[in-house]
Amino acid sequence: MNLGGAAKSFGSTPAVDGVDLTVRRGETVALLGRHGSGKSTAISLMLGLTAPDSGGVSLFGDSPAQAVALGRVGFMLDDCRPIPRTTVREQIAFASHTFPRPLAVPEVLRLAGLTESADRRADLLSDGEVRRLRFALTLIGDPELIILDEPTAGLDARARTAFWAAVHGYAGRGNTVVFSTHYLEEADDNADRIVVMDHGRIVADGNGEELRRSAGGTVVAVDLAGRGSHGLTELPGVVSVEIRRDRARLATTDADATVVALARMDAIRGLEVAPVSLEDAFLALTSRLEATLLGASLAR
Fold first, then answer.
1. What SUPFAM superfamilies has UniProt attached to this entry (predicted)?
2. What is the pTM of this model?
3. pLDDT for 240-280, tens place per residue?
4. Helices and strands (DSSP H and E) totals, the chain
5. In this structure, are residues 243 and 229 in contact, taking their beta carbons and an 8 Å threshold?
6. Could you list the residue range(s) of the whole structural domain that residue 137 is in?
7. Claim to verify: residue 130 and residue 272 sit in the same structural domain
8. Interior angle at CA 60, CA 59 and CA 63, nearest 5
9. Strands, DSSP E only, in the chain?
10. Of the residues 189, 206, 223, the one at which a domain ends
11. Which CATH number is 172's domain given?
């Protein structure tokens, strides 16, 4: 899958702003970002539901519409309700007739973790089971790529775990998965690669460890004790500063140099040094873009 400089605006607001993204076969890729970051619009472009204003989108060398029509791409609908008074098995079997080369129904049930629920009425399933039924209906045509837009929103922890077990079973067959989420842990736990989006742009692309390193690798936290934050961004090694109440968190590439500089400023109170978490990395990466956009706006 390839997005080449894809851009889409709604009115004067850019939702996707010149995105270049290539997803290789067999990868599981998370699009991570806050609400309004451009994730859902990017997925609409991938599926051909929205046409880009500029740039291009291709799936397996075809247009999104062609790839979807050929059954090579599956998308899990979020608002699809189970048909009343039919069983899980019956719904999957009915859907299988719409595809030229469907997977066998027992195989779909196994992949979606629904074997034990196969003969239950679909309209009596739990929320987590309904989500896995939707996933099963996504798989029935044996697509090579599935695209999921915030697939576990609203599920409890147990239902999320069961859903991701089903996704991993599908990906383990050599298939490709692209999913959007605003849950940091979900991206870190389930993706080979995390693409961080903000303001319609890609601000980082790599695995969880690579993202942590790009944000500094280490956090040095100190109490400000009322002294203010002036000069902290200029300290050696510091790549970003976050103030939480009266405590500063400095993402740094050189914790030793940062701590020494703080000591010279007589600014060490309640010192804590720890590895950067994915949350720290996400905040640092998105705050850099916001600072860049603000600077560009002020310069106009």
1. P-loop containing nucleoside triphosphate hydrolases
2. 0.81
3. 888 888 899 998 889 999 999 999 988 789 999 988 888 87
4. 10, 13
5. yes
6. 2-206
7. no
8. 45
9. 2-10, 13-22, 28-32, 54-58, 73-75, 145-149, 176-181, 193-198, 201-206, 218-223, 238-244, 247-252, 272-275
10. 206
11. 3.40.50.300
